[in-house]
Write a sequence for this structure.
């Protein structure tokens, strides 16, 4: 443990022990003249305690919605599962200690969240949202009322924890435990964000295809997001149950799920601190507005609508905007330095193969690295690919050209696993890759770029490079959640490697810039860099020069040549920029209407008239003009 | 058998109305309106205040209730939704949660926190069909649902503005280019949502007889299921989904009502929903997006 961590821990512990102290010290601080008490009473501790429970729940929902982009409108049910599970083991029948109850609550929450996550593998957005509404209703309306399972409508009593003869019966004392759980969940949530877990979640939120192309097993990480969130929700529920000591199905109404969503959005989707503040505020709201006497809910609802219509990004976005406005004002007064976008032609990162990848068989230069045989794909009535075959020899740059709609990108999608062909076989490095999902192909060493930029555009350049190295982040989930030394070490290596790659591109000043703020050409280069950072055996490039300045496209040709000649890499290239193709490719395939129209060395293709006709349209020569 | 069928069809038609409200707003603003059900409860309270407290005739109270609900929906569209054109849709959905909470608070504050009683519009047993009676409220519901369904379909398909509403969800830019004002489309869908919620609430309340703030939530959930079953963007689908939910719920409820398992109807509705979505992720009549 570093000195800093020790300090943080000490401050945290002192903070946690504050409530009981305050409770005892301030007892009797009543000021009859003002007509109110300033003591930290048990009632105030209870309010704060409920706020802490909801803060834990809000962190849980924020992980799922803010990080992984999966909406849950039934989160209160997970809280309920935690409370009932803990109640079942700590109640009279077993009398298990509180800590056991909490563990059981977390496990139960995680297990039920796993089930809730299963539909999320097929459903998205609103569909998923409504299914989770149904789930929440189902659990609340049915399971929590079912006599043999939960004690029925009579509800369930949960004991306060005890240590020896001491019982945490005072709310201020229980607050210590609640704050400890909040601290734990906060730390775990931080660890999620600074390891591959958070990046994989973000990748899924941004674009599942992109995440897959970077080797993220989307199924696994989606379920993981649900399970981690479920464990936290279970803890929150258990915590709340033992605080209020009595729960029934009404405690975990559908409205509670909605309020949790409100807290997360009001606090700012993905912003932990904002979300926790929003949760504490919501719990305290009725007591803050006590002077409003009956108007409090009305005022709260109006505030919510007003806040949303003024600041749709929530509190944290509102603060950020204010900060940015101030910064802009300051910058206006300071001297402007308008720097033209530099025209220096960057190099592509040429990094050696990273550690931690599965062993790959060496393929001699010139032998086929990828063999595609008789691949057919149809979309409805459209035959996108018709018995297409091609070979990509190791250590070469192979071009794939053809008019729009010829099936080039479909062939890429078949090779990288996003489209399952109706017929045909594919071998990569001598193994059959036919049934493998995209992320497995990425692990095997097939990297790709997309026709429309394949990056997580809301993440920074550095974060994209880190996400791109997902397959080499060789540490387990447990190691990540605890941020154990192994995870920390690997993360440092990944950052180092990313920085090298960014340096090669000459993009140091964009390291922390969100990708969406870059120009199109810059995005292209970042995408190329990300595809290269794990040194894939085969690189599929889908129109890399599209949107680049002519000079940059020429530079690209030089760089691709270097990749082949100096690093022995293999590239399959879709390109409309024919000079670039003729310049850099060793071998060319021409695709039209889903069929390979012709193939041959660059010189051969350049001479074939039917190829040029397919590509540039029928040449109009005088003898063809009707006479 | 007969009464269950009638109950299922009547409830299904009403769920269909709620589903249409959800679908229209979703088409117009790409937003899930969490207040869809509660707009109806608010209308019920207004109607109750006039009918029960001030001895207005049922029809007059009902019309005033519908008007109040439409007014609230329109104001919300004008004051909140329209200011959030560029906001993320989740934020707008959270704003509708705000409306939902606002309506509950307003009902409790202005009218009553506790259960109130509102009698059926027409009393009596109703005509006898085969060997059972079909209640007058059921007949009223059927007539109203069929009239609204066909009226709405005619309006949306036969008038230029109606076609504009349907097209706006698919290509807003094109719709603007041919001269339809998107702000009017949005206002129209919200007003209709308010009206449909109110009618649904007025029709379903007599089957229970009492209500309180939050009353419509249980039916809103079923409306959601119906909208999703139908494919979320399809208006006929919303009615098909509503009938599906209503019938399955009625028959399963009848079969298992003795089992003692609570919430068996909710369970069935969502089991149905999940099964349908897993087989057809775009819903029964939804268009598969690629």
């Amino acid at each position: 443990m570093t000195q800093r961590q020790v300090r943080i821990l000490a401050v945290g512990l002192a903070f946690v022990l504050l409530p009981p102290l305050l409770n005892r010290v301030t007892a009797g601080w009543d000021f009859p003249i003002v007509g109110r008490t300033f003591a930290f009473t048990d009632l105030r501790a209870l309010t704060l305690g409920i706020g802490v429970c909801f803060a834990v729940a809000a962190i849980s929902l924020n992980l799922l919605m803010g990080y992984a982009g999966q909406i849950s409108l039934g989160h209160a049910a997970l809280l309920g599962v935690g409370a009932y599970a803990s109640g079942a083991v700590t109640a009279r029948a077993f009398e298990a200690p509180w800590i056991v109850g909490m563990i059981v609550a977390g496990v139960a929450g995680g297990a039920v969240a796993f089930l809730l996550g299963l539909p999320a593998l097929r459903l998205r957005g609103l569909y998923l949202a409504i299914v989770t509404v149904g789930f929440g209703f189902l659990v609340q309306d049915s399971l929590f009322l079912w006599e043999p399972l939960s004690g029925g409508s009579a509800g369930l009593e949960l004991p306060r924890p005890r240590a020896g003869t001491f019982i945490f019966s005072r709310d201020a004392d229980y607050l210590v435990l609640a704050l400890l759980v909040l601290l734990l969940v906060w730390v775990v949530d931080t660890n999620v964000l600074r390891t591959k877990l958070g990046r994989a979640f973000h990748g899924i939120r941004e674009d599942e295809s992109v995440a897959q192309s970077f080797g993220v097993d989307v199924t696994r990480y989606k379920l993981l997001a649900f399970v981690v969130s479920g464990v936290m929700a279970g803890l929150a529920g258990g915590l709340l149950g033992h605080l209020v000591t009595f729960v029934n199905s009404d405690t975990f109404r559908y409205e509670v799920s909605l309020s949790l969503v409100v807290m997360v959005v009001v606090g700012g989707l993905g912003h932990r601190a904002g979300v926790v503040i929003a949760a504490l505020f919501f719990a305290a709201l009725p007591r803050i507005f006590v002077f409003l006497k009956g108007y409090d809910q009305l005022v709260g609802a109006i505030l919510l609508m007003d806040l949303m219509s003024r600041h749709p990004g929530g509190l944290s976005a509102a603060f950020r905007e204010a900060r940015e406005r101030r910064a802009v004002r300051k910058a206006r007064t300071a001297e402007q330095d308008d720097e033209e976008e530099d025209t220096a032609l960057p190099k592509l990162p040429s990094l050696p193969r990273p550690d931690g990848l599965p062993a790959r068989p060496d393929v001699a230069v010139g032998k086929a690295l990828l063999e595609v045989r008789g691949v057919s794909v149809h979309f409805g009535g459209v035959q996108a690919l018709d018995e297409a075959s091609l070979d990509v020899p190791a250590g070469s740059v192979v071009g794939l050209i053809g008019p729009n709609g010829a099936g080039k990108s479909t062939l890429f999608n078949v090779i990288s696993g996003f489209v399952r062909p109706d017929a045909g076989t594919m071998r990569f490095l001598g193994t059959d890759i036919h049934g493998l999902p995209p992320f497995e192909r990425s692990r095997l060493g097939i990297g790709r770029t997309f026709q429309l930029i394949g990056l997580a555009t809301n993440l920074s350049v550095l974060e994209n490079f880190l996400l791109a190295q997902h397959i080499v982040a060789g540490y387990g989930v447990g190691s990540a959640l605890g941020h154990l030394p192994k995870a920390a070490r690997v993360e440092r290596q990944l950052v180092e490697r990313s920085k090298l790659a960014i340096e090669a591109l000459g993009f140091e000043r964009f390291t922390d810039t969100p990708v969406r703020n870059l120009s199109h050409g810059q995005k292209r280069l970042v995408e190329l860099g990300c595809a290269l950072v794990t040194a894939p055996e085969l690189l599929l490039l889908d129109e890399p020069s599209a949107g680049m300045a002519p000079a940059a496209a020429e530079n690209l040709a030089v760089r691709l040549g270097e990749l082949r000649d100096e690093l022995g890499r293999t590239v399959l290239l879709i390109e409309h920029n024919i000079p670039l193709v003729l310049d850099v490719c060793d071998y060319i395939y021409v695709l039209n209407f889903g069929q390979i129209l012709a193939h041959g060395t660059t010189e051969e293709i350049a001479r074939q008239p039917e190829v040029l006709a397919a590509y540039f349209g029928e040449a109009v020569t005088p003898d063809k003009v009707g006479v | 058998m007969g009464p269950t069928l009638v109950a299922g069809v009547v409830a299904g038609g009403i769920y269909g109305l709620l589903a249409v409200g959800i679908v229209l707003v979703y088409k117009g603003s790409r937003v899930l309106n969490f207040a869809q059900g509660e707009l109806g409860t608010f209308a019920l309270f207004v109607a109750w205040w006039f009918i029960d407290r001030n001895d207005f005739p049922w029809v007059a109270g009902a019309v005033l209730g519908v008007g109040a609900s439409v007014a609230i929906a329109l104001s919300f569209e004008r004051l909140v939704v329209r200011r959030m054109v560029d906001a993320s849709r989740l934020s707008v959905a959270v704003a509708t949660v705000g409306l939902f909470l606002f309506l509950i608070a307003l009902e409790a504050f202005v009218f009553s926190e506790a259960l109130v009683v509102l009698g059926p519009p027409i009393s009596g047993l109703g005509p006898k069909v085969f060997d059972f009676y079909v209640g007058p409220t059921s007949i009223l519901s059927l007539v109203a649902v069929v009239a609204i369904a066909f009226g709405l379909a005619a309006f949306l398909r036969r008038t230029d503005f109606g076609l504009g509403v349907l097209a706006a969800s698919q290509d807003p830019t094109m719709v603007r280019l041919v001269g339809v004002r998107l702000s009017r489309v949005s206002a129209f869908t919200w007003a209709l949502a308010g009206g449909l919620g109110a009618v649904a609430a007025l029709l379903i309340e007599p089957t229970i007889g009492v209500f309180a703030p939050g009353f419509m939530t249980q039916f809103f959930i079923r409306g959601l299921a119906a909208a999703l079953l139908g494919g979320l963007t399809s208006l006929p689908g919303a009615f098909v989904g509503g009938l599906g939910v209503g019938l399955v719920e009625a028959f399963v409820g009848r079969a298992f009502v003795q089992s003692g398992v609570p919430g068996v109807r909710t369970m069935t509705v969502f089991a149905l929903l999940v099964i349908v979505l897993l087989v057809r992720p775009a819903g029964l009549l939804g268009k598969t997006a690629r």
